[in-house]
Amino acid sequence: MEMPRPNPDVLARKDEIIRRLQAVMPKDAVISDVVETRAYECDALTAYKCPPLAVVLPASTEEVSAALRVCHELGVPVVPRGAGTSLAGGALPNADSVILGVARLNEVIETDYENRFIRVQSGRTNLSVSGAVEEAGFFYAPDPSSQLACAIAGNIAMNSGGAHCLKYGVTTNNLMGVTMVLMDGTVTRIGGAHLDAQGLDILGLICGSEGQLGVVTEATLRILHKPEGARPVLIGFDSNETAGQCVSDIIRAGVLPVAIEFMDRPCIRATEDFAGAGYPDCEALLIVEVEGSDEEIDEQLEIISKIARRHDPVELRQSASAEESARIWLGRKSAFGAMGQINDYMCLDGTIPVSQLPLVLRRIAEMSDEFGLDVANVFHAGDGNMHPLILFDANKPGDLERCEALGAEILKLCVEVGGCLTGEHGVGVEKRDLMRSQFAPQDLEMQMAVKDVFDPEWLLNPAKVFPLDDSAGRRIAAE
Amino acid sequence: MVKRLKPGTEEELAEIIRDADGPLHVTGGGTRPIGRPVDGEELSTSALNGIVHYEPGALTLVARAGTPVADVEAALKAAGQRLAFEPMDHRGLLGTAGTPTIGGVFAANVSGPRRIQCGAARDFLLGVRFSDGQGRMISNGGRVMKNVTGYDLVKLMAGSHGTLGVITELSLKVLPSSRSTGVLLMEGLDDVTAVRALSQALGSPYEVTGAAHLQRGMDGHPVTMIRLEGSETSVAYRLSELGKRIGAFAEVTTETDPELARAGWTYIRDVGPFHDRAGDVWRLSVKPGDAPGIVAQVDGAEAVYDWGGGLVWLVVPEGTGAGAIRFAVSEKGGHATLVRGDSTGGAFQPEPEPLAVLSAGLRAQFDPRGILNPGLMG
Question: A304 — contact with chain B (CB < 8 Å)?
Fold first, then answer.
């Protein structure tokens, strides 16, 4: 993975930069010690590491603004960091950059059940937002798998989704307003407790912009009352095609489950060995969950089961209790852990039109043979968001490169069948150089022209999202 | 006589924009003339017509921008699906004629009562193709529901009223229609109590898909309405449970006749009470709890509350200045748009400084010559 050559001029001025940052921040909020900065050398894409020049940990919007103003004035690149759980290298530093971490911005500012929103500082973790409103029976809907650790700031940067977004949408559909600091230190407020922010939809633009347009310090989020209950049905099939057809039939029948999860044989086997959830030995497995009162759940599960039976399932297990539900979810929830047990893995997240599921799964199996690496599939089938896990051995020379090459081929396939490179993880550095397979030059130029407006010097997370060659002119002009 | 340009292909449209030597007044079907009037040659997308792709099993549809909304709705209905955000038809309120287009719906980010539960038009827009102000064709987004590949210019195009680019094709998410509808009705509530009752309903687990209050219902008296949708069993259950919860506010009656329920919500969606009323019409987006106070501050206003109070339609005597309304709204947070009335002074709420700079910067990138609906939004 190529990163831009660090700006020698910035490296040479390290002491001055630290001094200037210390002048506007509390003493313990600026980290420059080589050992301590190493804690920020990577995010969850651990294959790539680089300690930053320094780390700042502001505790208020004002401190964020002050730190950015200093970096802007001195021409220092800044890499914003939420909780560092990005799987795409969104928070990977460069040697000449300052990491701006939002971990100390973790307060709840306002909770309003009448008007159904919560306002939080952006470093607060996703799960603790729901935690803050749980007692009143409310929750915050987007639920990425990393929700225990990941920060709202990162959720906004990557427009995070989760298992339940088939019904509740992703971050952008649940974000009502932000306070955001631009690279030059300007503080802007967009949206608020009302629906649909005024003027151009800049809120929608910021969501998913991977920390390249501004640093979000506060967010107003929509909260919902929890459903009365939820229960899944587990359905096993002897072919991926049949399972894919069943997903499509469920959706066409007019029931809108809250989640439809899909696991293929390699994944089912691995999780069975690991967690022993009692899954059937079959080619494909669906977990379909619905919500409501007990009667409403029974009614919906019956409709889904009826559809499933038409496809000759090898197993159909309707949950009737919380205990049975937990057992059905056990394997799915331990899928990633199970994979980690077997080997190192790389998790992709291309999205495809649901109708292309059988074709794409078949092609992935063929490619897996060609490259000699196993691939297990576990994903959100209702919205076509795939999560192929490519297994490799990081200690075996050449394996990582082979894995990345296979990953690239799978993602190109997703684009070819009408989908996209990433459904919820973001582009980061990981998929940066694949952007040309999805976008024409003028499409990328238009997106980069947007960054020019927010960050004309290209100092904010500059080496991400766009192929390095494409952004080179702008980044180098900035130096 | 102003020339009306109706390109039949994307290439023709891009060429017109490239060759333009003055402002273009970009329209779809011309049924939603919202914003400061544009003096320029009219460029309509209405000849870019037709559904390109519809996959009910994937809940996605791709159509050219000029496709009539009615055609899209008919295709969806045949497969038991719908535009869940329930776009308003502006013709009754604005006294316009013509055919609303699907491109116009998204260009103006038009959402109806169900927005409160499922999201706005912009939340259902998955992908766009558009020509920028220099006639370059740009693609963004796609036809899948989850997509974080690159910047979300799709959202930016939604609600930009043709000022950043001209949408030629769009892909959208659709949802299944519900099998039945039930409505809870309360009569005679004042605005404050009504919004409180609606808040209670919206803060319940019963998935309310409509929450409105009319100061003057069809019979001239205040009426508060709450909509529930789903299977018959489910609707019956929730009508009963929710009815008990809000029973403390007023006597609750129930309506389950599908035709009456549909008519009632179309009346709210299209702001029926103001169709035959003279006067300027304003659209306010505010925090629901602030709505009654803001309405009370505007002299001579009558209100229709939708989205649990978050959306307020106001009719005021013709020529009432923007001052009082904008002041009341901006003090609390939110924004007000003049939807019917003399918009030569501007229809949209002026943006605060840092946002205005960003918006101007974006416009300069998308349309450097400033020829696409110049001045319409600001």
Answer: no
Whether B180-269 shares its CATH topology with B272-340 is answered yes
Other Cβ atoms closer than 10 A to B226:
29
Which range, of A173-177, A397-401, B365-369, averages the lowest pLDDT? Answer: A397-401
Mutate to test the interface with A, among B77, B148, B228, B237 (most CBs of A within 10 A): B148
Which DSSP helix (H) or strand (E) runs through B175?
strand B175-176
The nearest alpha carbon in chain B to A224 belongs to B203
Partner-chain residue, chosen from A172, A299, A354, that has the shortest CB–CB distance to B234: A299
Is the Cβ pair B377, A252 closer than 8 Å? no
Nearest Cα to Cα of residue B121 among A248, A422, A204, A380: A204
Provide the 8-state DSSP code for A73: H
CB–CB of B123 and A249 under 8 A? no
- For B272-340, CATH number? 3.30.70.100
- Please give the DSSP secondary-structure letter assigned to residue B338: E
Dihedral angle of Cα B308, B310, B311, B313, to the nearest 10 degrees: 90
Q: What is the dihedral of CA B71, B73, B74, B75, to 10 degrees?
A: 90
Q: What's the whole-number mean pLDDT along residues B173-196?
A: 97
For residue B237, the distance in angstroms to the closest alpha carbon of chain A comes to 9
The 10 Å CB-count burial string (b at 16+, else e) for B273-302 is bbeeeebbbbbbbbbbbbbbebbeebeebb
The pLDDT-based confidence of B97 (bands split at 50, 70, 90) is very high
Q: Which of residues 292-351 of B touch A (CB under 8 A)?
A: 307, 310-311, 333-335, 348-349, 351
Tell me what ipTM this predicted complex has: 0.97
Using a CB–CB cutoff of 8 Å, tell me whether A292 touches chain B: yes
Q: Which residues of A touch B122 (CB under 8 A)?
A: 196, 201, 204
User: Which fold is adopted by the domain B4-176?
Assistant: 3.30.465
- Over 70: is that where the pLDDT of A478 sits? no
Each residue of A15-69: pLDDT tens digit? 999 999 999 999 999 999 999 999 999 999 988 999 999 999 999 999 999 999 9
Q: How far apart are CA A470 and CA A455, in angstroms?
A: 16
Q: What share of chain A is helix, strand, coil (3-state, %, to 5)?
A: 40, 20, 40
Place of tokens 């970096």: A71
Position B3 scores a pLDDT of: 66
Q: Indicate the domain borders of chain B.
A: 4-176, 180-269, 272-340
Neighbours of B47 (CB within 10 A): 15
In chain A, which residue's Cα lies nearest the Cα of B159?
Answer: A200
Question: Which among B199, B310, B348 is the nearest to A199, CB-wise?
Answer: B348
Amino acid (1-letter code) at residue A65 = S
**Amino acid letter at B14?**
A
Give the burial string for A318-345 (b: 16+ CB within 10 Å, else e).
Answer: bbeeeeebebbbbbbbbbbebbeebbbb
pLDDT of residue A477: 76
* Cα separation, B346 vs B337, whole angstroms: 9
pLDDT in tens, A239-263: 988 999 999 899 889 888 999 999 9
CATH 3.30.457.10 correct for B180-269: no
- Are B362 and B308 in contact by the 8 Å Cβ rule? The answer is no
| B57-to-A3, A431, B75, B80, B292 alpha-carbon distances in Å | 42, 29, 14, 11, 43
Two structure tokens written together for A32: 């420059």
Q: Which of A479, A427, A469 is nearest to A77 (CA)?
A: A479
With beta carbons under 8 A apart, name residues in chain B contacting A187.
Answer: 354
For A155, residues 6+ apart whose C-beta sits below 8 A from its C-beta are A82, A126, A142, A144, A171
As a whole number of angstroms, the distance between CA A279 and CA B165 comes to 52
**Strands across the sheet with B311-316, in order?**
B252-255, B180-187, B223-230, B208-214, B302-306, B311-316, B280-286, B334-340
